[in-house]
Write a structure and sequence with these properties.
Rossmann fold, 3 domains, 6-stranded mixed β-sheet, 8 helices, 22% strand, disordered C terminus
């Protein structure tokens, strides 16, 4: 049997793993450009590069892998790398999310542990509610107020369709808790009466609009931002509910002198508050925070809470007028507290929470 002569060409050396050590250090992205997120659509983000700057322009971006599951929402200030020109077919990458001044959250219901971030860096929450068609749901409004106060945001209650019902009851209900109220209605030729007052309340701020479907939220946005072209719908005559027309949140700049933004959100039928600590709710009522601090340990501050200092504070008022004012404040606080804690026998539609089957 003849043998074969081997040479160096027959030798195969297994490649090594290289001399470069693996590292978890990420690139610094020092050349990243700042941008404002204005919309989210199926993993793609509409952004304004150099917002309010001399080179402001729109672009499309995706989220970089290093951000993991961290959610990017309208209102976020982010850093971009890659192709940020905004030319057709280009795609930048979001590599950093800036610190958020405020974060508006909600949960699917009051037991859901998963928080859903709606928008970031908004100054005020505008709760849009129709006075009729569909009927106003006060507990839904209460829940929005609780979420806004928890997020450190102001609250503006915008009542629409005032030509169909009186606003007096709702104004009297929410004015004592520091909620500013504006009222609109349809005028001749479809014009919105009261729009100037709404503009004044939004001027120079970032406002997020929330409301049930069919309350006129998209109609209001189209009047404020003529180029928005947000779809509008009608209320179902049988269910009394509106049809969802907006499918995603989008930030829109309101024309005018001051930098004013509105963030339109899809119509909601639930606003869970599982993320809100009831103990923090008194912080929205500075005059009551000092009172509840004197309550016995474990006091719920509810109507039937024994030895609650809120009741003593009301009864200790120096005169009848002050007593009635204090009582209104306490009732407002307890109503919001009840909205956060929920009620087993409450109508879930009134509470603003859809029960799961």
């Amino acid at each position: 049997m003849s043998g074969r002569r081997y040479d160096e060409s027959d030798v195969r050396i297994r490649p090594g793993r290289g001399s470069r050590p693996r590292t978890k250090q990420r690139p610094a992205h020092e050349d990243a450009e700042s941008a404002l997120v204005t919309g989210v659509d199926r993993g793609r983000y509409a952004v304004l590069v150099d917002p309010a700057g001399p080179d402001e322009h729109a672009a499309t971006a995706m989220k970089a892998r290093e951000l993991g599951r961290e959610r990017v929402v309208p209102g976020d200030r982010v850093d971009l790398v890659g192709d940020t020109t905004g030319d057709e077919g280009t795609l930048a990458r979001i590599v950093r999310i800036g610190e958020r001044r405020t974060v508006l959250r909600r949960t699917a219901d009051d037991t859901d542990p998963v928080e859903r971030v709606i928008v970031a860096n908004a100054d005020q929450l505008v709760v849009v509610t129709a006075l009729a068609d569909p009927e106003p749901r006060t507990r839904m409004i209460d829940r929005c107020v609780v979420a806004a106060y928890d997020a450190g945001m102001d609250v503006l209650l915008c009542l629409t369709k005032a030509d169909l019902a009186s606003q007096d009851e709702l104004v009297a209900m929410y004015a004592p808790i520091g909620v500013r109220v504006v009222v609109t209605q349809r005028g001749e030729g479809g014009a919105i009466v009261g729009l100037d007052e709404v503009r004044a309340a939004l001027d120079g701020r970032v406002s997020v609009l929330v409301g049930h479907s069919g309350v006129g939220k998209s109609t209001l946005v189209n009047a404020l931002v003529p180029d928005a072209r947000r779809a509008t719908g009608v209320v179902n005559d049988v269910t009394g509910r509106g049809r969802h027309t907006s499918t995603s949140a989008v930030a829109l700049r309101v024309p005018g002198g001051s930098p004013t933004w509105v963030i339109d959100t899809p119509g909601v039928r639930s606003f869970g508050l599982a993320h809100v600590d009831p103990a923090h709710l008194a912080g929205a009522f500075p005059d009551l925070a000092e009172v509840v601090a004197q309550c016995p340990r474990g006091c719920t501050h509810a109507d039937d809470a024994p030895d609650c200092e809120l009741d003593a504070w009301v009864e200790g008022a120096p005169d009848d007028e002050t007593r009635e004012a204090r009582r209104a404040r306490v009732e407002s606080f307890r109503r919001l507290l009840a909205s956060r804690l929920g009620s087993a026998d409450a109508d879930p539609r009134e509470a603003g929470v859809e029960r799961r089957p």
